[in-house]
């Protein structure tokens, strides 16, 4: 089928909730994608922070193929080895508690909200301005952005949004607070790392009032920032965290991971999902997690991230460069959506804009130094033209 034919099918048959760019991708390998004409593209978006290990990583593909040929689904009424092993590995590499599987980032946050509300019945959930936690009703209610929330009112009650500022946050937490839900680095609002003071203030307020501090690591986890989990670099340990996106190595899976204190809050019947932690996706995730833990990979993320950030700061039209590791954004003095569009169509460089002047870069963690330089050269050509 031609791109025009696909666009016609979309026009007649697909709900118009996405604004797609006019490219069809048919194959991917490592940091590269190929379109329907065989043109090679350099991928600095990773399907919005999903294909962190590059496209079609051989170990992930082998795990999927091997498991898909053996057993695909039985539900959580029974045991399967991949889910149990993945839960153990996730817990061991992070908060040491227990894991609830689901299928996306929004669902992981739904599970976190339910957990916190069960731990403190009727309690509020405090969230920060600029946060993005997903599009389902609970997650959307935790996402205080007018344009995303307003068409879908009424939302779930009991969410309080406060400024991302230590004092405001501390004052918002009291004995009625069930949880403070925070992205340690706000992703969708333009890659904004929260300060140590803010996170420490959230930790202290939650400790004082017995509320749960929950970190949303859906975008910043899985090695993206140069440590397996972003919280490791903050000096603040949450009581629970949510993970998704890159966890499945390209397949859909989400997880709520608790620390010990919250490990046994949810009981049989409290929460469930038919597909969650199925053997194929759990096998893929186990491979992805093992690969993402590798110290050499994480050191590479820090090195390449520094090189990319330095290079971005030297490009024309670029002001502030923000982020950690390979989760970066830069502010432009020209329209970022147009720059992203031209980068794709003229330079075959895939990245995206999170706002009118904010360009976001989420390249694969297996990126080479030469690919960093290649990307900077492509972006320079767009910005200089
Ligand atoms: N939380 C964060 C921090 C995210 O960046 C996203 C998606 O961008 C979500 C939650 C929602 O994840 P999903 O789209 O898988 O529901």
| CATH C-level label of the largest domain | Alpha Beta
In CATH terms, what is the architecture of the largest domain?
3-Layer(aba) Sandwich
Q: Enumerate the distinct ligands.
A: pyridoxal-5'-phosphate
Oligomer category: single chain
CATH fold-level label of the largest domain: Aspartate Aminotransferase, domain 2
Morphology: globular
Strand order of the largest sheet: 4-12-11-10-7-5-6
* Structural class label: alpha/beta
Q: Give the tally of β-strands.
A: 17
Report the radius of gyration as a whole number of Å. Answer: 21 Å
Which blocks of ≥5 consecutive residues have pLDDT under 50?
A: none
Q: Major beta sheet, specifics?
A: 7 strands, mixed
Structure summary:
The protein is an alpha/beta fold. The protein is built from 13 helices and 17 strands. The protein starts with a helix and ends with a helix.
List the helices and strands and how they pair.
Blueprint: H1 3-13, E1 25-29, E2 32-35, E3 40-43, H2 46-49, H3 58-68, H4 81-92, E4 96-102, H5 105-119, E5 124-128, H6 137-141, H7 146-149, E6 159-162, H8 166-172, E7 177-182, E8 185-186, E9 192-193, H9 196-209, E10 212-216, E11 240-243, E12 254-259, H10 279-293, H11 295-313, E13 318-324, E14 327-332, H12 336-347, E15 349-350, E16 352-355, E17 358-361, H13 369-384
Parallel strand pairs: 3-15, 5-6, 5-7, 7-10, 10-11
Antiparallel strand pairs: 1-2, 2-3, 4-12, 8-9, 11-12, 13-14, 14-17, 16-17
Helix pairs in contact: 3-10, 4-10, 8-9, 11-13, 12-13
Pyridoxal-5'-phosphate binds next to helix 5.
How would you characterize this protein structure?
The mean pLDDT is 98. A hairpin with a 2-residue loop joins β13 (318-324) and β14 (327-332). It is built from 13 helices and 17 strands. α11 runs parallel beside α13 (369-384). It has helices at residues 3-13, 46-49, 58-68, 81-92, 105-119, 137-141, 146-149, 166-172, 196-209, 279-293, 295-313, 336-347, 369-384; strands at 25-29, 32-35, 40-43, 96-102, 124-128, 159-162, 177-182, 185-186, 192-193, 212-216, 240-243, 254-259, 318-324, 327-332, 349-350, 352-355, 358-361. With 385 residues, the protein is α/β, with parallel strands linked by helices. The strands form four sheets. It has a seven-stranded mixed beta sheet with strand order 4-12-11-10-7-5-6, sandwiched between helices. A four-stranded mixed beta sheet has the order 1-2-3-15. The chain has a four-stranded antiparallel beta sheet with strand order 13-14-17-16, covered by helices on one side. It folds into two domains: 3-56 and 295-384, Aspartate Aminotransferase, domain 1; 71-292, Type I PLP-dependent aspartate aminotransferase-like (Major domain) (Aspartate Aminotransferase, domain 2). Helix content is 38%, strand content 20%. It is globular.
